[in-house]
């Protein structure tokens, strides 16, 4: 039996929504009177907020649990360990069997974390991986202090069932949060210090409501919030990219010129086997339409190499798509078979060495394009949102509208928006020279 914890530490491993969930769990525990600590080894309660998207993510959780327990034992300390997030959802029972943990809670049930912790303190089993119809959001405490750039989940779940992906199983069916609840949370975030809000969803551009506002309607409403300078959204699916949303990129000033639009592969046979429901050509045409209204938009994407059956010629189609589009940044992964997904049972799984080689070639092309995009920004004047202090004296770090990291020297407060001229570019960041100080 363990006593009720007084301090806690939340560690998030996954996507931006996972990070957002981690923040909300921290707010929830703080509202219960627990104190947050940065030191996972000293906390009475450690929440491991896990991700299930690729193999190593799951293994890392088990090794983390082992390390935490060992370290704690050496200190004569016996922390309560809670496994939250998508591994908890997918492998809850397995975790209980395989690891020494006190609480298991899924991504749709974490509003119950305080009750589960209380149960565990009494020595009772504490596992909740339900996906209740009533959403958790109404049961969470309000937003308090946040940084200048905040996340806000507006849509959750996925009905797309790409054949490689666990998300539809770990997050459940697509749901959109109500318009008014989102606007209220956005206002609370701005009141708590946010200058930029990134709207989150597994398919964020599928967000909608009974009045058919669409994501673009929501963005247009948020655009009118005093003190909110920047709006971003992620992740989008090509098939949910409506004309209304494309138009918003043409005329909503606070909507930043950045679009993360995963394509995964450049070959139609592979896309079909992935159940992506878009083709190479439809994706290329979509990007043309977006660039027509916002020529400077920074394009970002996700790629998978070595999907089962992918041939060298099919992989070459991914490289040629990258060459044709010029991504400003991107994430690329080796295909990882996930238990329970259709692709895991497909014949012709690609060998590890072949995947390594393809990933290297793809990343070389993506890095080249990212550097080229950064170099092409030199000379531009743009706003930079100051997010934190840099390592050098007087140095500040912020983001350009195109989500590039910008270093500059100056006496700014975190959350200031400064107008700078971009003067030099490296592969991962730019340097800016201040030209004007704008209002925070
Ligand atoms: N909902 C988003 C993101 C899903 S997960 C979307 O549809 O774009 C983020 C990325 O992880 C995916 O875009 C994909 O590139 C990658 N991914 C998902 N499952 C994977 C798997 N089994 N193996 C390798 N990469 C995977
Ligand atoms: Fe996964 Fe596909 Fe859904 Fe994205 S759209 S979350 S890749 S199933
Ligand atoms: Fe990972 Fe779950 Fe996000 S599997 S990528 S934490 S939705």
UniProtKB/TrEMBL annotation:
Residue sites binding [4Fe-4S] cluster 2 per the record: 158, 162, 165
Recorded GO CC terms: cytosol
Domain TRAM residues, every copy: 375-436
Co-factor requirement: [4Fe-4S] cluster
Nucleotidyltransferase is among the record's keywords: no
Localization, UniProt: Cytoplasm
Every Radical SAM core domain range: 144-372
Reactions performed catalytically: N(6)-dimethylallyladenosine(37) in tRNA + (sulfur carrier)-SH + AH2 + 2 S-adenosyl-L-methionine = 2-methylsulfanyl-N(6)-dimethylallyladenosine(37) in tRNA + (sulfur carrier)-H + 5'-deoxyadenosine + L-methionine + A + S-adenosyl-L-homocysteine + 2 H(+)
UniProt keywords, alphabetically: 4Fe-4S, Cytoplasm, Iron, Iron-sulfur, Metal-binding, S-adenosyl-L-methionine, Transferase, tRNA processing
Protein's recorded name: tRNA-2-methylthio-N(6)-dimethylallyladenosine synthase
Native organism: Sphingomonas carotinifaciens
């Amino acid at each position: 039996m363990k006593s009720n914890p007084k301090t806690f530490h939340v560690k998030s491993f996954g996507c931006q929504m996972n990070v957002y969930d981690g923040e909300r769990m921290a707010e929830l525990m703080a509202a219960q009177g627990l104190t947050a600590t940065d030191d996972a080894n000293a906390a009475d309660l450690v929440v491991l907020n896990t991700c299930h998207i690729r193999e190593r993510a799951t293994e890392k959780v088990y090794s983390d649990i082992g390390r935490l327990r060992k370290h704690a034992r050496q200190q004569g300390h016996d922390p309560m360990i809670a496994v939250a997030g998508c591994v908890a959802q997918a492998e809850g029972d397995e975790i209980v069997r395989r690891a020494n943990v006190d609480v298991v809670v899924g991504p749709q049930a974490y509003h119950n974390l305080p009750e589960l912790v209380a149960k565990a303190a009494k020595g009772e089993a504490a596992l909740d991986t339900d996906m209740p119809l009533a959403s958790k959001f109404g049961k969470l405490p309000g937003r308090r202090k946040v940084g200048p750039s905040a996340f806000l989940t507006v849509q959750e779940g996925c009905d797309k069932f790409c054949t490689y992906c666990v998300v539809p199983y770990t997050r459940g069916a697509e749901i959109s949060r109500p318009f008014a609840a989102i606007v209220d949370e956005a206002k609370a975030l701005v009141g708590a210090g946010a200058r930029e809000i990134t709207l989150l969803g597994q398919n964020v551009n599928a967000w909608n409501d009974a009045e058919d506002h669409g994501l673009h309607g929501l963005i247009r409403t948020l655009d009118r919030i005093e003190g909110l300078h920047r709006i971003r959204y992620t992740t989008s699916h090509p098939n949910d990219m409506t004309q209304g949303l494309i138009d918003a990129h043409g005329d909503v000033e606070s909507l930043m010129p950045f679009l993360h639009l995963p394509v995964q592969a450049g070959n139609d046979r592979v896309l079909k086997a992935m159940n992506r429901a878009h083709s190479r050509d439809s994706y290329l045409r979509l990007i043309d339409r977006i660039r027509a209204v916002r020529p400077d938009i920074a394009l970002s994407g996700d790629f998978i190499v070595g999907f089962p059956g992918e041939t060298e010629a099919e992989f070459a189609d991914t490289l040629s798509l990258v060459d044709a589009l010029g991504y400003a940044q991107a994430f690329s992964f080796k295909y990882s078979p996930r238990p329970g997904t259709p692709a895991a049972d497909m014949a012709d799984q690609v060998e590890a060495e072949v995947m390594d080689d393809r990933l290297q070639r793809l990343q070389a092309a993506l890095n080249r394009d990212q550097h080229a995009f950064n170099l092409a920004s030199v000379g531009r004047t743009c706003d930079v949102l100051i997010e934190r202090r840099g390592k050098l004296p007087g140095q500040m770090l912020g983001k350009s509208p195109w989500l590039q990291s910008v270093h500059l020297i100056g006496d700014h407060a975190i959350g200031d928006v400064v107008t700078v001229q971009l003067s030099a570019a490296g592969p991962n960041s730019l340097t800016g020279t201040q030209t004007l100080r704008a209002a925070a």
